[in-house]
Specification:
By secondary structure, the chain is of the alpha+beta class. The chain has a domain of about 80 residues: Rieske Iron-sulfur Protein, CATH 2.102.10.10. The protein is built from ten helices and 24 strands. The strands form four sheets. Strands 3, 4, 5, 6, 11, 12, 13, 14 and 15 form a nine-stranded mixed beta sheet that branches. Strands 1, 2, 7, 8, 9, 10, 16 and 17 form an eight-stranded mixed beta sheet that branches. A four-stranded antiparallel beta sheet has the order 21-22-23-24, with no helix packed on it. Strand 12 and strand 13 form a beta hairpin. Helix 1 packs parallel to helix 5, helix 2 crosses helix 3 and helix 3 crosses helix 7. Bound molecules: flavin-adenine dinucleotide. Flavin-adenine dinucleotide binds next to helix 1, strand 11, strand 15 and helix 7.
Length: about 500
């Protein structure tokens, strides 16, 4: 069983742990240090190694620990940000360029699977978008026009493989799906077979720049390289990109169905937030995988509620026999709907990142591998400008950005002043967490099932927002930029670099 950054077990974790092979000397000056062992890091490291670069990949935990181990792995040539909006904000040529990037990424994944014989349950499937009311039907019409204008096939049809009622339904052929951690492990084996080095349990802390060379301090000593790529889902430290994206949490459940009537397709309604469906066979068992009930990170007091809502939605339409898995995971959305892939603003020219993939990171992570490997090997990429992290926001997206930030400020103030009082400590039940105000400080408390008490300072070590408890995944999550911490304060997700400060409680 592989590890993940949450307490719930995802369908993809029942996979044998990856055993990194070689032990190349870490005295080597590598061409590229790739930080992070999710789809972005592994795809990028493999692409660079294929192009003759000598790469090391450092993962703080184990491969697939981040969102790539908690994804649902729909592989699409359309995105959460519909093509009509990309066309409106970035121009029709860029909408077509985005469609080309997606098509090339799907081909690149297929090539990896076939060249390296990666057994990961990959298949091509059609996708169906269903509008369940008049407003959604209007949105579907805009999406359909924009998608076709971008050069992607999308057509209205009259039947659906999903037992979900609709007003209108459209099909997009040629989408894909796979078992994500099996794919990641396949990429890792391919990378090693080409001479790449993988270091697990190797968090990268700081990058020190010595001329052209980077000396990275890590859990396993100094790693030297000429380039660094933060494939950490969100780059660490405080950076411009943190103020141009917002963290969200999405919920997933895997069901067995009584009828055995599993739709062999990908499906999406157009609700806000939307629900997404697909089927995957894992260890000989078919599962209906449904996701949705998204909310901004730390903006849901009761993280059981989204699971209940999702389950109720699925039970309305499908003959559920059992819920076998349920988990949630985090993603980042950018202010203008497109990801940030390229040189990391405010850093030397040899530091890169890829982030803000929304719910499309399987494809964007693969696109990032192409863009970053081209930028590192040639300095150019056809996609450089489109995904430039330092790009100026399109004016139309500004309203969106302001409301994202307003929510952050609100929760910051509320978190500081709405903390609970000291009697809360005495009544804290096993499995429960509380934010308690004591004298002039606040304490984040959690008592586990063995009645062990964990107490930490709830001030996020990134930019001092107040963390909130995520009961479903047993973590302290920051509403501002998505840093997440274990009950004892260990960093689970960046951008924070430092753990939450421990608090000592006496007289217990
Ligand atoms: C519930 C859910 C469903 C989704 N479904 C889909 C889908 O169907 N299709 C799709 O395309 N996308 C989907 N996405 C989005 C997609 O899963 C993500 O965008 C993608 O997995 C991100 O991959 P990544 O490699 O960039 O980041 P991650 O997978 O998070 O990997 C980053 C890695 O970096 C490591 N790391 C962090 N800091 C350090 C450090 N300092 N040193 C060393 N290592 C470090 C972490 O431990 C982690 O393993 C979904 C997202 C969610 C939340």
């Amino acid at each position: 069983m592989i590890a993940r950054d949450g307490a719930n077990t995802s369908l993809w974790q029942d996979t044998a742990a990856f055993q990194p092979g070689q032990q190349v000397s870490t005295d080597t000056v590598f061409d590229v240090l790739v930080v992070g062992g999710g789809i972005t890091g592994l795809s990028t490291a493999l692409a660079l190694q294929q192009q003759g670069k000598k790469c090391v990949l450092a993962e703080a935990w184990t491969l697939g620990f981040g969102t790539s181990g908690g994804t649902t792995a729909h592989l699409n040539n359309f995105f959460d940000e519909p093509y009509y909006r990309v066309s409106k904000h970035f121009g029709p040529d860029n909408a077509r360029l985005l469609a080309t990037a997606a098509k090339e990424a799907l081909t690149a994944m297929e090539r990896n699977i076939s060249d390296y014989q990666i057994s990961c349950g990959y298949s091509r499937r059609p996708a169906y978008l269903f509008a369940t009311d008049a407003a959604q039907a209007e949105e579907l019409e805009r999406m359909s026009e924009g998608t076709q204008d971008a050069g992607v096939d999308m057509a209205y049809i009259n039947e659906s493989p999903f037992p979900i009622p609709y007003q209108r339904i459209a099909q997009l052929p040629g989408q894909g799906q796979f078992h994500p951690t099996q794919y990641l492990h396949g990429l890792a084996r391919a990378f090693e077979s080409l001479g790449g080095l993988i270091l697990e349990q190797c968090a990268v802390h700081e990058l020190e720049h010595r001329g052209q060379q980077i000396n990275a301090s890590t859990d396993r000593g100094i790693l030297k390289a000429l380039y660094a790529v933060y494939a950490t889902h969100i780059p660490p430290g405080v950076n411009l990109v943190h103020f141009r994206c917002a963290p969200y949490r999405s919920y997933v459940m895997a069901f067995r169905l009584r009828s055995g009537n599993y739709p062999q397709a990908l499906g999406y309604d157009l609700a806000d937030p939307y629900h997404y469906y697909r089927t995957q066979e894992v260890n000989g068992q078919q599962y209906l995988i449904a996701g949705g009930a998204d909310h901004k990170t730390a903006h849901e007091d009761n993280t059981e509620r989204p699971f209940r809502e999702l389950e109720a939605c699925v039970r309305q339409y499908f003959d559920v026999a059992s819920v076998d898995y349920r988990w949630s995971s985090q993603y980042y959305e950018s202010v203008d709907g497109l990801p940030f892939i390229g040189q990391l603003p405010g850093n030397p020219a040899n530091v890169f990142t890829a982030t803000a993939f929304g719910g499309n990171g399987m494809i964007y992570g693969t696109i990032a591998a192409r863009v970053l490997s081209e930028l590192i090997t040639t300095g150019e990429s056809a996609y450089k400008t489109l995904f430039e992290p330092a790009r100026i926001k399109p004016a139309a997206a500004f309203h969106n950005f302001v409301s994202e930030n307003a929510a952050v400020i609100k929760s910051f103030v509320a978190g500081k002043f709405a903390a609970e009082s000291i009697p809360g400590l005495a009544s804290l039940a096993a499995g429960e967490a509380k934010l308690v105000r004591m004298e002039h400080s606040r304490i984040a408390l959690f008592k586990d099932e063995a009645h062990r008490l964990y107490a930490v300072n709830p001030t996020c070590t990134h930019v001092q927002c107040t963390v909130a408890w995520n009961q479903a995944e047993r973590s302290w999550d920051c509403p501002c930029h998505g840093a997440r911490f274990s009950p004892e304060g260990k960093v689970l997700n960046g951008p924070a670099r430092k753990p939450l400060e421990p608090v000592q409680i006496t007289g217990l």
